[in-house]
Amino acid sequence: MHRFALHRIRENTRYERRMAAELVTIETDVLVVGSGAAGMYAAIEAARRGAAVLLADRSLIGRGGATVMAQMTVAAALGEETPDDWRHHYDDTIAAGRGLCDEALARLLCEEASDCIRELDRWGVGWARKDGHITATQAPGHDRPRCVYVDFINTGPAVSKTLRAEIARHHKSICKAGDLCVVDLIVGDGEASGAVAWHLSSGAPVMVAAQATVLATGGLTRLFARNSASANMGGDGYALALRAGAPLIDMEFVQFFPIGHLAPRLIGMDPIMWDPFRYKLGGRLRNGRMEEFTAAYGSDEDGKYVLTRDLATYAILKEVAAGRGSPHGGAYLSFAHCSRQALRAAFGPVIDRLAANAIDLTRMPVEVAPIAHYHMGGVKADARMATEVPGLFVAGEVVGGANGANRLSGNAITEALVFGRRAGASAAERVKHRAPPRHRMRPQDGAAALDLVRRDGFTRDRRKNTAAMIARLQAIMTDDVGPLRTGRGLAHAMTQIEALGDELGERPPGRAANFDLQRLEWFDLRNMLVVARAIVQCALNRTESRGAHQREDFSTTRPEWQVHQTVRGRDGRLQTSGAPHAAATVIAS
Q1: Is the model's pLDDT at 16 over the cut of 80?
Q2: What is the percent of the chain where pLDDT is above 90?
Q3: For residue 276, with 0-12 CB atoms within 10 Å meaning exposed, 13-18 middle and 19 or more buried, which class applies?
Q4: Are 127 and 4 in contact (CB under 8 A)?
Q5: Which alpha helices (H) appear in 357-486, and where do they start and end?
């Protein structure tokens, strides 16, 4: 049935561009929103268990989100080269999380990582090998070499390509729908029952009826001016879940990748590309005086890369604040101690791409600085990936709690694979054991969301510069909600965010037409602003420094703050709870 509905979408695209497109309805067993590694693995696992799946994404299937951009490593205790066990991986994950990891989720992450890696190997991903064994490299925070990779910064693209190929093998069970922007989830009788979406290329409103829904939309780093994410990582999954009634957890913990590329100009390459080569070659961090400085912040790296991301970020920013930064406001990363042969062996064809950007690592360092990269918080879920809303599951970076206050290097793609597979299995099991629905979904079930999609805004709304509003939000978050925070800065950010919300209004501008980017930006801002409020309020509440959350006015870690903060939607407002010795805080939504 869902294939016929998608055919109707295509007909709308072809013939109805000049008029209001009619409502398209789709029925499926499992709806998966987002098609990075987590979403694709969820769809594959649900299909393997007999479910019909609709895999929806606002961009191209398998080519949006963070996975396809990731050039890093994947943590899994394979033990092929060095003896290892998932319990050691778990211990390192817990230590990195600074006392806030959800232990059940962390255990699932570490215990099932190896199985996912080996399954991808059988599917032909091409993990780097040495002497017939999958090789592993040492990464910060790990007690031994544990992180696998596809050589020459191809890990993310290879994982995405492999999962796309596996999706194709399940083409009879998995229907793909790109250009589909999910506006809201539908909840009836307390259960998630599908979603309302906007088909970007036709302008058609779409209703998807599903017995189970999996959110796999990635993180929120688009909220910051300098970020390593694609343009659709604006926290959509968090906002969708919150409006559906599912609580969020640990929203204050945004991880900044410490050595994002800053200068000289680098075209056509990932700004976080330097990490795997620091693993291999021990690239040295130096301040503006060309002095190594990490020992002053708790780690004498001695030519190795051992400083965890939260501490490395802190160290670089403190050097900059002390007037010892590099010319563009970061630190130098130097490979001058490496021979040309060693660089070629480690970088391979990447050396030629660097040369095209006039970068010769034997003669010059590069400048690096922290960049928004990942979010430890997210939707509260159990080890089945089930939320508090029956029928709603989450996967990948949408899940909160597994990584506590600081994610261990290499765990991002790992959690996408493990949590995606588990979410798909849980969704399929719900379909299998649930009685058939008594009636088809009716348009009135999602009337409010449909009204948003269909409604034409006032002509004067066209004067709103939604792109400029997104840039303002990014500047606010970067200036006052970045790696180093103060109560004064956070309060200032909240005031500005509230003003942006008032300016945005309650309905999208323009007409319900195809490829209306201003309208799409309105829906993006609708989600981004509610997520930004949740981050800022939780950061204001947490009067300590822990992991990725660093308060300049509360610089110590306090034992009474070894608690999770929770955010819920209440009557159109956000309510936070969990702060020790404090009443719940209510903020506008």
Answers
A1: no
A2: 78
A3: buried
A4: no
A5: 411-433, 447-454, 466-480
pLDDT tens digits, 360-388: 999 999 999 999 999 999 999 999 999 99
Convert 82-109 into a string of H (helix), E (strand) and C (coil): CCCCHHHHHHHHHHHCCCCCCHHHHHHH
Query: What amino acid positions are annotated as catalytic residues?
Result: 309
Rounded distance between C-alpha atoms, residue 317 and residue 256, angstroms: 11
Would you give the DSSP letter of residue 40? H
Token pair of 500, please?
A: 């942006």
Most confident range (mean pLDDT) of 456-460, 503-507, 514-518, 571-575 is: 503-507
d(CA 494, CA 489): 9
* Residue 578 to residues 261, 317, 561, 583, 589, Cα–Cα distance (Å): 37, 30, 9, 9, 19
Token look-up 């072809």 returns 14
Residue 224's nearest CA partner among 513, 477, 571, 527 is 477
Kindly report the number of other CB atoms within 10 A of residue 136's CB atom.
28
Q: Quick one: pLDDT band at residue 270, thresholds 50, 70, 90?
A: confident
Supply 578's token pair: 């969990």
The SS3 call for residue 183 is: strand
15 vs 202: CA distance, rounded Å: 9
Q: How far apart are CA 176 and CA 335, in angstroms?
A: 44
- φ/ψ of residue 286, rounded to 5: -135, 150
CA 271 – CA 554 distance, rounded (Å): 31
If one counts every other C-beta atom within 10 angstroms of the C-beta of residue 152, the result is: 16
pLDDT attached to residue 31 = 98
